[in-house]
Amino acid sequence: MSTSTVKSLPRILANQARFQVRCLPSSRKTMAMMSPATKTRTEKREGDISDAFASLEGGVEIPLEPRFADLKKRLLAGREDVIVASWNRLLEHLRDQVATIQRHRSKLIPEISFSDVMKGKVGADFSAAYKKYGVCIIRGVVDEQTALEYKRSILEYVAKNPHTKAFPQHDPQVFELYWSEAQLRARSHPNVISAQCFLMSFWNASQRAEISLRHPIAYADRLRIRQPGDSSFALGPHMDGGSLERWEEGGYALAQTYDKIFEGKWEEYDPWNADKRVGAVIDLYGGVGNCSAFRTQQAWLSISNIKGGEGHLKVNPLHGFATAYILLRPFFESKRGAEDVSEDQYLSPENWRLELETSPKIQGASPGHGQSVHAKLHPHLQLQHTMVHVPAVAPGDYVAWHCDTIHAVDSVHNGSQDSSVLYIPACPLTETNANYLLRQRDCFLAGKPSPDFGGGEGESRHVDRPTVAQLSEWGGEQGLQSMGLKKWNSQEQGLRDGEKTVMKIANSVLGFPA
């Protein structure tokens, strides 16, 4: 099949038609038409990365509708005393954890070499630290020259396509690219897929849970090439995966994700329980850039050298304790303000009580955005002490953090070279993710932005946009499966019952014969 320059959607479909006969279901042989299932979900409006985060939009917190006061009352009903006792225990525990983070900072974040992962040399210390703090680095997932070649290839792709959308448009730092050669090569690289499987192995799933943590799907996300001196990509502390959805009955509650926290038993909450994620709805509002697929881990592959203060990632190792705090915070108010007493007095459990009159406030949450986290709104997290830099990374290192981890980016890039990454999260195979993959497959073939992101023409007119045949060459069977272009093998040896079921469901969703 020709791999010559791709100049238009009709041409790429024509060039790919012969290959698609072999890799796609017979009922969808040319994929020249967008799937009917795709059309049932409205395409998101055109946008960029700033639309996903209130901190980048520069907006103020929007007052919520009165119905959220009723929601809070329902969550509290009949267990007020239990919630208060739980809150008080949590505040005491946070105080100790904050002190630990303040002492050790970045040293808490475990790291491991990819070669050790492949040899099975995973120490107990690494595993314990990763599960406790929710963040890790896998060194050398791809070699340095390969990673640097990814960046060179991206810059060449952008130069050939000056109409590429970016944020901010006048001085691009984050590119609205999803289908460049570098991104497709990296997502389908066998080492990256192996690293994702390793990361997902820290989750636990029951025998019948309809999820496979060993068969990641490719989630097409953006890339960043942030230049020295930039202050526009000032992404403040936040959690991905929606915001209001964490409280709403039609959101995470459908999977009982946070039930233990709302029952006043935060000590029993397991952030690594995959059963409690399957079926959750994490994007009720269709926000531009708000994720609707289930990503067990957020992650990126470094394509430059990056260290703290130079446009680097900051994370909050409080992990599950921070999640419990953010979820319980809307039910409480302070008796005396921070300006009236000392910090210790303000943060003391004795200074906090259930709201005298239940308000609709859910601090840092707004429809269609990620969960913002602020020092004033979430004072007990002491963000000035608990947001720590990830250790310095080199090209080819893979940094991953749990899907609920609070994270941010240096507000100013004070370094002397670019801070560049490819966003490549780990996503398990679930029915929700299979449905997402169906829509994403259409976007790939049409050169449109990935479904969770802003609509518009995307890369449909981009020169040298890769083909299905090239993806097959680079990623092989695993790469095609991860993109919904090849059938999953539900007869594979050693599968759990739930894995077999979800693979059959995914094959059906994607149009492959039983």
Automatic annotation (TrEMBL):
Domain of life: Eukaryota
Matches recorded under Pfam families: Gig2-like
InterPro entries in alphabetical order: Gig2-like, IPNS-like_sf
Protein name: DUF1479 domain protein
